[in-house]
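Write out structure tokens for amidophosphoribosyltransferase.
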Amino acid sequence: MAAAAATTATNLSPLSKNPSPKRVPLFPNRLPKPPPSAPQPHKPLLTAASKNPIADLISTHKPDPKNNSPVIDYDDDDKPREECGVVGIYGDPEASRLCYLALHALQHRGQEGAGIVSVHGGLLHSVTGVGLVSDVFNESKLAQLPGDSAIGHVRYSTAGASMLKNVQPFVAGYRFGSIGVAHNGNLVNYQSLRAHLEDNGSIFNTSSDTEVVLHLIAISKARPFFLRIVEACEKLEGAYSMVFLTEDKLVAVRDPFGFRPLVMGRRSNGAVVFASETCALDLIEATYEREVYPGEVLVVDKDGVQSLCLMPHPEPKSCIFEHIYFALPNSVVFGRSVYESRRAFGEILATEAPVDCDVVIAVPDSGVVAALGYAAKAGVAFQQGLIRSHYVGRTFIEPSQKIRDFGVKLKLSPVRAVLEGKRVVVVDDSIVRGTTSSKIVRLIKEAGAKEVHMRIASPPIIGSCYYGVDTPSSEELISNRMSVEEIREFIGSDSLAFLPLDSLTKLLGSDSPNFCYACFSGKYPVEPTGKVKRVGDSVDDGLIGSIESIDGGWVQGTRVQEGKGDSKQKMEEEKVSSL
């Protein structure tokens, strides 16, 4: 029987919150307004009703030209993916090298492309490439990036033939000079903006929404320069945390809802640093000062740091998944410790969905901290029941004799000494399609576990994200299609419980209205226009597809609730397809 999750939490440790330093207004009449504490009423649920089968994690086999063994392109995890990480440095003679190190710290936010742009002698220098930061940059490449200011970018994407030209930062020349930009997020009105610009003669080199921002800056007539950025951003809708570099300025900007994180720090020599997470500041020995506020533009030049309000906003809507999965545990995101958040999520699960067990394990790496919290609260030992390989790429040659669950076994190895004959609680951060979870459960049972109880440190994901996270379509999200009991039967666990959404918001306390829960509730702070995810799609991040391929619209409906007979039959068909 599936464990039923209760609706309230007891005896929980509050999340630690880092106070921001006192702010000195430089533009006192145009500072962002403090967010109100009152929650807003919920809108009707907006999801895509689905009758399509859940897509399998592993793509179709492709023949290897050198032998007869199939080549598998193995998707690393059945997880939502953060698409980008950005960094900006002003006023350090080793700006590009520090930028390189900061990108290393942000590598978890994107592994398929990296780039750095520096400025020296009034000229912007750029090096970009496909792969990890360590693959793209070496001593000779960094030597091509002189100057005391730089911006950098790492990205995740799906594969695409035109990948390299879409790797950021982008550099463009216009009538007043050159500008580089690195962007984390996704513009939901990209299609209409691009169509309008093209109607007026703009020519695009990429399919990235970031290029739209450069065109809007180029056609702006505002003076001085940073007001061009303000004018351009006033036309944008969606999520954007961006850093811009010109011949003499570094500019950081965050959208009015503050969907994606962006922090500011300072090195001992006075150099100003911006980054997606504080872990990047730690590596280059920069002291965290504060977040870039939602709706704020920060301009850094020889005269210091100036702050300008971009536009008014009702309240922030920061992405809660940063605390659930994306950010590193040692980061402070949206003013809160990610480690303390995840530990508290595990404590809630142990309180509200207890089960008799002998050992608590995690699905590494993202489930570890929540599992520690669960084990401590339950008074049961935490052990490493699954060992993750960190040295595996994305493409593998499978033996001619097919190995069951080949992709998962490459990444995760069960420890029989921990699992055999035990009642095991397995803590993971989320379930997306459910295909990986079913294979993990099977892996643990094959290692001799007597019982397997899954505990998920997030609420059920029922909606796609349009704010800079690569998630499947709503039709592919298993929680949008099945009840908790049906999911439990599908993945084969002895019990299953999710973190209740109301317990999550209770834990966040007065800050709860300032987070976006669209993937859990279907309530979108900014509704996308002219673009919807379908089965097999990922967000158009500029590496695949063209503007013509972006079509469709919203499907208004309610969460899928099918009859038990139909659901069970469909579930059996999907279980067969995922083997």
